[in-house]
């Protein structure tokens, strides 16, 4: 019974921290994409102005990431 408890605890802890790390990576990538879109507005970078049109309209960075796949 102790072994099962320890295995469940280890599995749960690993699952939790993996989720936290993956979420942190996702947020970091979203912040980088936002920065690229805001920088493109200031610099006039045509490539990123075109890529970021969805973001400029909706303010949702996820549409930029969905369109890049």
Give a quick set of tags describing it.
69 residues, mainly alpha, 4 helices, rod-shaped
Q: Whole-number average pLDDT?
A: 91
The total count of strands amounts to 0
Radius of gyration, taken over Cα atoms and rounded to an integer in Å: 19 Å
Order of helices and strands: HHHH
- What percent strand? under 5%
Q: List unreliable stretches of 5+ residues.
A: none
Distinct helical segment count = 4
Measured as a percent range, the helix fraction is over 70%
Q: Report the sheet with the most strands, covering strand number, pairing sense and barrel closure.
A: none
- Taken from the alpha-carbon principal axes, the silhouette is rod-shaped
Judged by helices, strands and strand pairing, the structural class is mainly alpha
Distance between the termini: 46 Å
Layout of helices and strands:
Blueprint: H1 2-43, H2 46-51, H3 53-58, H4 62-67
Give a short synopsis of this structure.
With 69 residues, this protein is mainly α. It contains four helices and no strands.
Overview of this structure, please?
The chain has a domain at 24-69. 87% of the residues lie in helices and 0% in strands. The protein has four helices and no strands. The longest helix is centred in the N-terminal third of the chain and has 42 residues, at 2-43.
């Amino acid at each position: 019974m102790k072994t099962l408890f320890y295995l469940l605890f280890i599995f749960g802890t690993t699952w939790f921290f993996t989720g936290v790390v993956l979420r942190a990576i996702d947020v970091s990538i979203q912040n980088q994409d936002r920065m690229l879109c805001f920088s493109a507005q200031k610099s006039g970078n045509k490539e990123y102005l075109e890529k970021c049109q969805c973001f400029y309209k909706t303010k949702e960075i996820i549409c930029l990431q969905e369109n890049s796949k």
